[in-house]
């Protein structure tokens, strides 16, 4: 379970304070697929960055699988994230000098899997996302939809309990975006992983079980 207690984030820049999160209390159950919807500047990315340990909150607790991640030391947090979390970004964030299968196997190599085993697992997951014939393509030889499938495969390859997605369809045309959402939904149902998807696009929320609406650093829940 993911739980926050009175989560606050205040950015401080040259003496100016910007309160981006003003006390967020949320609970997301294991296996849930949730969207966080809100206008530009409402704090969605800040919330996702705090929940996923990319950024540190100013105040409050973030409890993930019974661990308050705000109390972890940097190296403990890095290990916790590598073991428990996967990330999907708007612009895919693939490594340009690695081909598709090399991008996907990288998280496994970082976790210490041997090369043969990592390659096999990466190939299987690329088949699962429909990219059997694109394994050796470099990112610049993939369409946007294919690149996002590779990124999804990379996010899921370590079988994380939680997958964070920041505008996963933001750089794609509508049809490709909907295909990606169908794939994410299918994987969520099959693997019972928690998906938290940040978006400003209400169409994306139709794929999720629950919508958490944000405005001005606060959360308004909707079922
Ligand atoms: N590094 C920063 N320093 C100062 N203020 C920041 C910083 N990052 C974000 N903010 C401010 O915090 C608020 C929330 O920003 P955030 O990026 O979380 O919103 P968002 O809902 O994700 O917006 P968008 O949909 O446009 O990405 C905004 O007012 C923004 O200007």
Question: Would you give an account of this structure?
Answer:
The protein is of the alpha/beta class and about 220 residues long. It has one domain (about 30-60, about 80-220): Rossmann fold, CATH 3.40.50. The protein has helices spanning about 45-50, 75-85, 100-110, 115-130, 145-155, 175-190, 200-205; strands at about 1-15, 15-30, 35, 60-65, 65-70, 85-90, 160-165, 195-200, 210-215, 220. A hairpin with a 2-residue loop joins strand 9 and strand 10 (about 220). The longest helix is centred in the C-terminal third of the chain and has 18 residues, at about 175-190. The model has no long low-confidence stretch (mean pLDDT about 95). The structure holds adenosine-5'-triphosphate (ATP). Keywords: ATP-binding, Nucleotide-binding, Transport. Belongs to the ABC transporter superfamily. InterPro entries: AAA+_ATPase, ABC_transporter-like_ATP-bd, ABC_transporter-like_CS, MacB-like_ATP-bd, P-loop_NTPase. One of its GO terms (molecular function) is transmembrane transporter activity.
**Structural class estimated from helices and strands:** alpha/beta
Low-pLDDT residue spans: none
Strand tally: 10
Read across the widest sheet, the strand sequence of neighbours is 6-7-8-3-9-10
Task: Describe the SSE topology.
Layout: E1 2-13, E2 16-28, E3 33-37, H1 44-51, E4 59-64, E5 67-68, H2 74-84, E6 85-88, H3 100-110, H4 115-128, H5 144-156, E7 162-166, H6 174-191, E8 194-199, H7 202-205, E9 210-215, E10 218-222
Parallel strand pairs: 3-8, 3-9, 6-7, 7-8
Antiparallel strand pairs: 1-2, 1-4, 4-5, 9-10
Helix pairs in contact: 3-4, 3-5, 4-5, 5-6
Adenosine-5'-triphosphate (ATP) is lined by residues 11, 13, 18, 20, 38, 40-46, 200.
